């Protein structure tokens, strides 16, 4: 597998990544933001199946991990938008590989 | 981001992948098997922090998703070994990208 297959140090960085991205929602939220900043309701609509409670929790976690930024605009009433950070954008390759693998997995398991 | 940024079809395949790999353990178990077939106790030792109950559940799930194979040998007493399948090996690039991103994330968040 990996040229460093089984190496404990590699396992540690994979574990770091998996902990930061844990669950099925975080990457999908960042993927929704990859086309531009969005408001809560827009994200909720694009990430099919997520509840408002979970989305709210995940947005806070992603902000704490510097993967997105919460921008408050001084309008009346105030508007809030979420945008992906440079660090969030650095997940592009991970998402690409998950996309390709997801296609292969669907073919392998579901057979179409 | 992805050239197809925000495309609903791409989101679907990423979702498929995330569902199959959900949680922090599956990829670490497959990573442990990337150096060769192993017995339950060996995997449990290599995947730091996993409980026997969780490992047992995850192994069944990975087998159902054709990512690993459970081999029973006719010894006395019988021995059981788990090995990664070709489909499991196809996760190599995902793991590689997670490894690189995990290193960058540690630097960004923890600063070392």
From TrEMBL, chains A, B:
Key words, A-Z: DNA-binding, Transcription, Transcription regulation
Highest classification ranks of the organism: Bacteria, Pseudomonadati, Bacteroidota, Cytophagia, Cytophagales
Record-level Gene Ontology MF annotations: DNA binding
GO biological process, one term: regulation of DNA-templated transcription
Segments forming domain HTH hxlR-type: 7-110
The UniProt record lists the keyword Membrane: no
InterPro entries reported in the protein's UniProt record: ArsR-like_HTH, HTH_HxlR, WH-like_DNA-bd_sf, WH_DNA-bd_sf
Species, as recorded: Dyadobacter frigoris
The name this protein goes by in its record: Helix-turn-helix transcriptional regulator
């Amino acid at each position: 597998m990996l040229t460093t297959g089984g190496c404990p140090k590699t396992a540690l960085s994979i574990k770091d990544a998996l902990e930061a991205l844990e669950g099925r929602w975080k990457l999908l939220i960042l993927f929704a933001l990859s086309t531009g900043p969005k408001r809560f309701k827009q994200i909720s609509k694009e990430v099919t199946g997520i509840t408002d409670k979970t989305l709210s929790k995940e947005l806070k976690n992603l902000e704490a991990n510097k993967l997105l930024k919460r921008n408050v605009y001084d309008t009346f009433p105030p508007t809030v938008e979420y945008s992906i950070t440079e660090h969030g954008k650095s997940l592009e390759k991970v998402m690409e590989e998950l996309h390709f693998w997801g296609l292969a997995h669907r073919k392998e398991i579901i057979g179409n």
